[in-house]
Amino acid sequence: MLEAAQWCGKAGLALLFDPAQQIIALSPDELHSAIAVSKGVICNEYEWSVLSQRTGMQAEDILRTAEFLIVTQGDKGVALYTKRGMEEIKACTADQVINPTGAGDAFRAGLLFGLEKNWDLADCCRLGAAMGSFVVEIEGTLLEDLDLDRVIQRMEQTYGKAPRLL
């Protein structure tokens, strides 16, 4: 993971640093190093608390080198930090919650899709939240299929609008 981060940094490639379950295995210096070459940092609440504690960094410290910090917070939504400040993005409500496993991966899929389309970061997070809301409704971690109309409908119900997906 760290070798890939350094390689991307040296090659000038955009990197989204997501320490995930490796957070406890990485030293403070390794975390600092990966953050320094990242375009953005993403983690859940727990990972953010560990990252902040181990590095002594707050959001403003990360934003000295990265463009954004995203902290997913489950049913409390998403905290999006940029140089313009912090924006709270509310969660999309699932019809039912069966198993939260995989919701973070689905969030990242929506986020990466939006980033690839050059969307506004907040819209990327909204799509990620919508994607995660569908995963928590099932047992298991992967959606068998994805109905884009339902994703758009859920985004419109929650946020009043949805970016054009295609």
The chain-level mean pLDDT equals 91
Identify the quaternary structure here: single chain
Task: Show unreliable segments.
Answer: none
Strand order of the largest sheet: 1-2-3-4-5
How would you characterize the largest beta sheet?
Answer: 5 strands, mixed
Number of strands: 5
Q: What is the rounded distance between the termini? A: 32 Å
What's this entry about, in short?
The chain is α/β, with parallel strands linked by helices. It is 45% helix and 13% strand.
Can you give a write-up of this model?
The chain is of the alpha/beta class. Helices cover 45% and strands 13% of the residues. The chain has seven helices and five strands; from the N terminus they run H-E-H-E-H-H-E-E-E-H-H-H. Strands 1-2-3-4-5 form a five-stranded mixed beta sheet. A hairpin with a 5-residue loop joins strand 3 and strand 4 (78-82). Helix 5 packs antiparallel against helix 6 (121-135). The longest helix is centred in the C-terminal third of the chain and has 15 residues, at 121-135. It is globular. It starts with a helix and ends in a 7-residue tail after the last helix. The model has no long low-confidence stretch (mean pLDDT 91).
List the helices and strands and how they pair.
Blueprint: H1 2-11, E1 16-17, H2 28-36, E2 40-44, H3 45-55, H4 59-62, E3 68-72, E4 78-82, E5 85-89, H5 103-116, H6 121-135, H7 148-159
Parallel strand pairs: 1-2, 2-3
Antiparallel strand pairs: 3-4, 4-5
